Amino acid sequence: MKIIFAGTPSFAAILLQTLLQSSHQVVAVYTQADKPAGRGLKLTLSPVKELALAHHLPISQPPSLQDPKEQTILAKWNADIMVVAAYGMLLPEAVLHIPRLGCINIHSSLLPRWRGAAPIQHAILAGDKITGVSIMQMEQGLDTGPVLLQQIYTLREDETSQSLHDQLAELGAAALIETLDRLNKNQITPIPQDNQLATYANKITKEEARLDWTQKAIELERKVRAFNPAPVAFTNWQQQPLRIWQAKAISMNYHHSPGTIVSASHHGMDIATSEGVLRLLRIQLPGGKIITISDFYNAKHDQLIVGQHLA
């Protein structure tokens, strides 16, 4: 089939790469505009644009697809279907009906659970045992369209947002090709979502990454894993932010108030919570590298005082 692909980040680039290796033809690529990044604010290409350039594909970066002129340009590709993956731009109703088979989206959850912008993080935060990918027919609602195909993934106990992202990108790529092949043969029956079962994954804010020590240790561990690699869980130690990249909930209780250092050694720094302790394993100070707690202890052991409080 002739495909228009719309996507921006690395998740979408993995899907595009798989499409390029398939029997289907990518006739055009849509991605967000180049954006300034880094200390020098140099314009940076999206991963999807970099891949499209490497394969000499036509690229379009319109500020909006609301413009009828942009819709006319899109229609001239005479595509069978438009594949959308983390494009970062809303598609107006008119665009959804331009390709012969409409537009489909790859979403990183088992819809209708975790509709919205941050399904990967919310699956980890909620302690979900399974998640997966959904290929859905797009409509005007937020991730409300009928499901064409789903694939299930079982989360590991140490799953982070980065590792789950990578797993679901690979799973989604395979599911996408299967969906396209079956659509081409008219072998898929769309299944409407049950709106009563819907949950929503709102975009994560930086302030949500601040650890609240009055929560349970297991809830805080999930936060650490869900916010790795961004925005990264943090607390305050000696009036400076301490970023926590890896931690483990330990089922033991101390008679200390939540947020208190109850022990510190080469093996970890244990912080009291409302239930259990959170053992910090990899941390980062402002301007520093990510280091193990063993290295942190070697450098700061005289400042890691039992009874000291983290804010």
Give an overview of the whole structure.
The termini are far apart. The protein has two domains: 2-107 and 135-147 and 155-194, Rossmann fold, CATH 3.40.50.170; 207-303, Methionyl-tRNA Fmet Formyltransferase, Chain A, domain 2 (Roll), CATH 3.10.25. The mean pLDDT is 96. Helices cover 26% and strands 28% of the residues. The protein is elongated, with a radius of gyration of 23 Å. A hairpin with a 6-residue loop joins strand 16 and strand 17 (291-292). The protein has 311 residues and is α/β, with parallel strands linked by helices. The protein has helices spanning 10-20, 47-54, 68-75, 93-96, 119-125, 161-184, 217-226, 293-300; strands at 2-7, 25-30, 35-37, 42-44, 59-60, 81-85, 103-107, 115-116, 130-137, 147-154, 200-201, 233-237, 240-250, 261-265, 268-272, 277-284, 291-292.
Labels describing this entry:
8 helices; Methionyl-tRNA Fmet Formyltransferase, Chain A, domain 2; 2 domains; alpha/beta; 311 residues; seven-stranded mixed sheet; 28% strand; Rossmann fold; six-stranded antiparallel sheet
